[in-house]
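Continuing the batch. This is chain 6 of the set; chains 1 through 5 are on the previous pages. Same settings as before, nothing changed between runs. Recording input and output for traceability.
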Amino acid sequence: MKRTLLLVLCALLAGLHVASFRDSGPLDDDFIHYRYARNLLAGEGLVYQPGERVEGFAAPLWILVLAAGMRLGVEPWTVSLLVSALCAALAAFAVGAFWNLRQEQNGSAAGRADPERAQAQGGSAWPIPALLLAGAPAFAFHGAAGLGTLLLAALLALWLWRYEAAVQADAPARGAALFLGLATLARAEAILFALFFLREERRRGRALPAWLAFTPLAAWWVFRWIYYGRFLPVPYLVKKLPWAADLGYGLRYLLESTWTAGVGLLLVLALSLLRGGRSAGPVVRAAALGFAAHVAYVVAVGGDYMPLARFFVPTLPLGLALGCLAAQRLLEARGAGSFARGACLGLALILSQVPQRQRAELRALHEQHEQRWIAVGRALARAVEPGTRVAVSAIGAIGYESGLELVDVLGLTNTAVLRAPPDLAIRMKGHHRHDAEYVLAREPDLVLPGNGLRTAEPPGFPVYLWERDLLEHEGLRSRYELMEMSVPGSYDLLLLVRSGSRRPLNARPLAGGR
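Output for chain 6:
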């Protein structure tokens, strides 16, 4: 009863920690999923723009979850936050339950060998990985950020717990296979865990139920090929760089993520558990090898540009569970007592709070970016005619709130920009490809330079490298006029209006605007 209460308290803390970051999210990319979900509910299909079948997302399960909430009449950002907080609670509960199962198993073995030693180690039953997870700012922030990050984390944590329970009961791991299968729909790279899961289940002689983990992703691949005509989502292809460039980005990302979320240290600890060979047990082997493979995958694809280790956060519950097991083994091997273990836990909790210093910065960035883009999208919806076509890089909140047809400058939701060679002079991961000829060929009525943001100095908007060729293109200079438009609740918007297009309401020419 006491252990269950502690798990519930950890779960509650994890959910509340996510809620404490509610003014820092959701991130703009989450709004892309909202638009896919809205179009799905409207009968337009799983598309960003009606009539254009492009898979501009990598988390199909997240879109289905959002669509279900929106069908009930809940705003998508509310669905995103509530589901993420629930998933944080589930992940904390699951890793705590896994920890308790391991402690009970170890306690039973130690009790048979040395009853006095087993009694002295009673404090190890505290759900240490659950406490660390609940207190991790990187984990909580990405709940508020959305994108289904914590949905995947919860599914992997539930897999770990139910797999351990099945192994200890010498039973088929059907429940674990189901959770892992759903995880592959949350992000396809979860298949790495499924491969090692199947390997261990074959050793246990229970391979048939383990194949369930591959069924959802296999079905999605068939659907993807039939519906989109591709085997990989467009965001993966458009962000892909030469391997050396991606590796450089990835190694820097791993270093940063070690500082903010302890990923590198957890990897070393997890791999240390494998030194026991088969004695490590099937669950630890599958989880540790899957964790290592996932880290290698993230490094190989170059990581991400979003703050606080987003690509590593889904495996953070597993990493903490394995890291705590390894630390416990090390401390017990050195004869450390309860005080030493408690001191180590306290130190880990303190170090995990390092990213809390970024709270104000994250809140400010959300106000400057997503809240601005929400205001711009709503202003455009009121100021322009339906059918107006807008070219912009930040397609999330502007696209969702305006409902207009967008020309995606960065190419997440079209198949044209991915054919452009990557511009390695750009240092922001995922923003390397651009094609001014394609953008202008779509004849957008409006172009929002600099993502609709504003600077104090002329020209008044940030000049991003991936937009420079567009802004300097003769076709844009000769056919578009620079104007200014009022945005209720925010500052005025600078935009380029094509000759012959109807200007937005409240838009006015800027002196020297061509």
